[in-house]
TrEMBL record:
Residues 105-157 form the RNA polymerase sigma factor 70 region 4 type domain. This is RNA polymerase ECF family sigma subunit. Residues 175-274 form the DUF6596 domain. One of its GO terms (biological process) is DNA-templated transcription initiation. The lineage of its organism: Bacteria, Bacillati, Actinomycetota, Actinomycetes, Streptosporangiales. The keyword Transcription regulation applies. PANTHER family: BLL6612 PROTEIN, BLL6612 PROTEIN-RELATED. It holds the Pfam family DUF6596.
């Protein structure tokens, strides 16, 4: 098995392996340590003969290394943990509302004792397998800040003896907001990865799978249904998001015949369920926006703008304001849209200068547009997005 294959297994299986071993060990820190050890062993072992089930191999190897370590320990706690590992059945019976190891891990990491930023940073690292740089981009904060959040979260879990256990049904709603955030960010990293190729399909599909589990677990929570609808409608467009040479294709230029109609139909039905509840939240509103984008041969931008007005009222963040400006440009023109984003402050976020560049180009202000594109290109870490921005800059008409 090549190094690239091993990297792919790491991305696809790391979260599952850590979640499974945490269930066996009852300790997140140890689980992560032994899974990393197992992947280090795989570097040598798999070169000659890769296993038929890489994820199961990693879990088994990590479990055996944990048993070896615990056998060398002399504490009563270590002997107890060893006994649990040795007598763990192949198919353990689970009790409680959360029956998926990874989803259960997300709820555990989203314990109320941890701060919201620490919860999501830790979960994205453990479950999404995201690197610190990728999490930092999602939060628009320095990498050092994310690193400290993860360290503090692990220390809090250890020092406070926060148990790895199945949350009771009454505990689930209090942790829902953090869980929704985690799944949303995992999907976003898959849909527009921090570096390398544009898409990480494994993260997109895993986020959709977990969102389905969550919606089934909490069918009366409108935002859980809204998140699932949002991910399905966005995932439906993924096949048309890149061209034949791997280039980025923006929404207006996508071949709609390549969209997944089955996912669109399912997403629309979920949006209608949310509308009947009349309890709008940010994920439901984003899902409704995506439902408009995927309804008919062209986007009704007036509807989109009306929904963004609601979303901005509900969630007044700079990123929502920036996305709303795109709809403003389609309805009222680039001038009002440019005025709407001039006051926004999003340090390090390449889509702000990229949007500004596009609006300036439409206004014929090419010198300013070039400068804005240069800023966006400098900030972009994804190769595909950078190439796309460079191409748009190159298409600008020369100055008079």
């Amino acid at each position: 098995m090549t190094t690239v294959d091993l990297d792919g297994v790491y991305r696809a299986e790391y979260g599952r392996c850590v979640a499974t071993l945490t269930r066996l060990l009852g300790d997140i820190g140890l689980a992560e340590e032994f899974v990393q050890d197992a992947f280090a062993v795989a570097v040598q072992k798999w070169e000659q003969k890769p296993p038929p089930n890489p994820g199961a191999w990693i879990v088994t190897t990590a479990r055996n290394r944990a048993i070896d370590r615990l056998r060398r320990e002399s504490t009563r706690q270590a002997r107890h943990a060893q006994a649990l590992l040795l007598h763990q059945p192949d198919e353990p019976q689970e009790v409680g509302p959360v029956r998926d190891d990874q989803l259960r891990m997300i709820f555990t990491c989203c314990h109320p004792a941890l701060s919201p930023p620490a919860r999501t940073a830790l979960t994205l690292r453990l479950l999404g397998g995201l690197e610190v740089a990728e999490i930092a981009r999602a939060y628009l904060v320095p990498e050092a800040t994310v690193f400290q959040r993860i360290v503090r979260a692990k220390k809090k879990i250890r020092d406070a003896a926060i148990p790895y256990r199945i949350p009771g049904a009454a505990e689930l709603p209090d942790r829902l907001a953090s869980v929704l955030t985690v799944l949303y960010l995992i999907f976003n990293e898959g849909y527009a990865s921090t570096s390398g190729e544009l898409l990480r399909t494994d993260l997109c599909l895993e986020a959709v799978r977990l969102a389905r589990e969550l919606a089934a677990l909490m069918p009366d929570e409108p935002e859980a249904i809204g998140l699932l609808a949002l991910l399905l409608l966005t995932e439906a467009r993924r096949p048309a998001r890149v061209g034949p040479s791997g280039e980025l294709v923006v929404l207006a230029e996508q071949d709609r015949s390549r969209w997944n109609r089955e996912l669109i139909a399912e997403g629309h039905e979920l949006v209608r369920r949310c509308l009947r509840r009349n309890q709008p939240g940010p994920y439901q509103l984003q899902a409704a926006i995506n439902a408009v984008h995927t309804d008919g041969p062209a986007t009704d931008w007036t509807q989109v703008l009306a929904l963004y007005d609601q979303l901005l009222h509900h969630t007044p963040t700079p990123i929502v304001a920036l996305n709303r400006a795109v709809a403003v440009a389609e309805v009222h023109g680039p001038g009002p849209a440019l005025a709407a984003i001039e006051h926004l402050d999003l340090p390090g976020y390449h889509l702000l200068p990229a949007t500004r560049a596009d609006l300036l180009a439409r206004l014929g202000r090419t010198t300013e547009a070039r400068a804005a594109y240069d800023q966006a290109i400098t900030l972009t870490t994804n190769t595909t997005e950078r190439t796309h921005l460079q191409a748009r800059r190159a298409r600008l008409t020369p100055d008079p």
